[in-house]
Amino acid sequence: MTDPSVPDEEPSSKHRRSGERRPDAPLESPSTGRLDPPDWDTFRATCHQVVDEMVERFQHQAEGPVWTPIPAETRERLAGPLASGPQELDQVLDRVRTDVLPFTLGNTHPRFFGWVHGSGTPAGALAEFLAGTMNANTGGRDHAPILVEEQLMGWVRETFGFPDEATGMVVSGTSMATIVGLAVARHGATEGRARNQGTPGIGVAGAEGRLVGYATADGHQSIRDAFSLLGLGADALRPVPMKADGSMDPEALGRLAAQDRADGLVPFAVVATSGSVTCGAMDDLVRIREVADAHGIWMHVDAAFGAAARLSPALAPRLEGIERADSLAFDFHKWFHAPYEAGCVLVRDGELHRATFGGRADYLTSLDEGPAAGETWPCDLGPELSRGFRAFKVWFTLQHLGAEAIGASAETNVRQAGYLARRVRREAELELLAPADLNIVCLRYRPAVDEDEPFAETLSARELNALNREILLELHTRGLAIPSPIRRGDAFGLRVCLCNHRTREADLDLLVSAVLELGRSLVPVA
Ligand SMILES: *Cc1c(COP(=O)(O)O)cnc(C)c1O
Question: What would you measure as the largest C-alpha separation in the chain, in angstroms?
Fold first, then answer.
């Protein structure tokens, strides 16, 4: 019998936990080091080849369709399990060439007009590659990547007229930036109690002391999501009526806030929008600021794509008042053309920002110098600890292209939207579904039956919607152009968002011709 209190010198393999090393086994195995290339020269040659293909793709993409249907075999291959063992680099690249590269969404193509997608730049792609080699973790500590991000934030502060004390960072996108901005607003409104105790009045609709905030019905979905995530409840986001141009009615905001306060609720934040996703409406930030001040509420600005207008002297006045926001959220991956993903949050009151998220665990203690130094780390400003080097591609793109070129490109898009809107107004068979004052044009096809009465009701509202749905689907599946679907009230239409620096006038002409031709060929005959 063995004494159970004395452990076996060498437990039988049956009892050894998997991964546990036999005491006599060598420390390294034959496959050790296999995670780096076995032959650097071969690797280098493959890299050069990939770079050539990448440049080729950028150069010639406009010649192909915007979008190509994904063949069933491709779907099947991508749905199966991953290969169990290692494969040669070339083998993996071949899979990429056959199954991935040909079937991307098309947002780098000049005729991609859907949603609000960025079209990227070749320089940005190069930056992504470089960032991959550094594999920086920018959660904190003292290294150049942190300084690069801080330099970029300095530029952001200056560009948007924020004070030096304002703090910010690069986040995944405007959705995350809005969560961060509103978290700071909530922290301020509850004098810090929300961080540990949650939000007063939670769970009881209309409860005394419940925090409520404001945005228009055209405000982005991510605002509601932020209210949900922050425990305020999406119902605590109250819709402010809009003016005819789709912007927030600041006077209505004032009335709502006053009424809510009288009802025992606590108005704490308004989310103004600079560039609404529906039609590019720009809120009157100067007036909203005044109303917000009168009611003691935080002004968060969602300028997801609209922020780029600040880089154009002609468009910048539309963002007047943005410099007085308490927090600002916008994207570098939309109208700034940096590769996905990169958004930005900037908070005027840096101290409040740090108080909202700061306070580090023991294992993240800073040292006075060396790699563990640094007073404020990006992880003190948001919920993320490990963070990639998202700032790099933005910094790189701005350094290389210059802010002026990015602003000029936005200006071109606005002129193109004006051109498209004029064409729509001129064509008897097309109509605008929303104001088109910035870079977004919502339109639909509507058959003209009679020269003298072009808008005669020939189709029911349902038929008209079905027809436009079909037109859009044909545009998409034939790879001609990609507007996105939009509903305006009961009307279904095509939404053309021009934030693509590759789009040319000829692309818009092609779109209009295609819509007219498809409309005429698809219209049901009575
Ligand atoms: C795209 C967009 C968002 C969300 O930004 P993400 O980068 O997708 O998270 C918010 N607001 C507006 C107006 C947008 O266009």
Answer: 107
Reported as type and span, the H/E element at residue 374 is none
CA of 469 to the centre of ligand 1 (A): 24
Q: How many residues does the chain have?
A: 526
Q: Whose CA is nearest to atom 2 of ligand 1?
A: 304
Number of structural domains (the chain) is 3
Q: Phi/psi of residue 380, each to 5°?
A: -85, -5
- Predicted confidence band of residue 20 (pLDDT cuts 50, 70, 90): low
Write the pLDDT tens digit of every residue in 396-430: 999 999 999 999 999 999 999 999 999 999 999 99
- 83-124 residue pLDDT tens: 889 999 999 999 999 999 999 999 999 999 999 999 999 999
What's the gap in Å between 107 CA and the centre of ligand 1?
A: 16
Which residues approach ligand 1 with their CB closer than 6 A?
116, 173-175, 220, 222, 273, 275, 277, 302, 304-305, 331, 343
Same domain for 370 and 328: yes
Q: What is the pLDDT of residues 300-357, one digit of tens each?
A: 999 999 999 999 999 999 999 999 999 999 999 999 999 999 999 999 999 999 999 9
Domain shared by 185 and 278, yes or no: yes
Beta strand 298-302 pairing with 327-331: parallel
3-state secondary structure 328-345: EEEECCCCCCCCCCCEEE
| The pLDDT of residue 449 is above 80 | no
Q: Which domain holds residue 496?
A: 405-522
Q: Are residues 213 and 292 in the same domain?
A: yes
Q: Are residues 458 and 357 in the same domain?
A: no
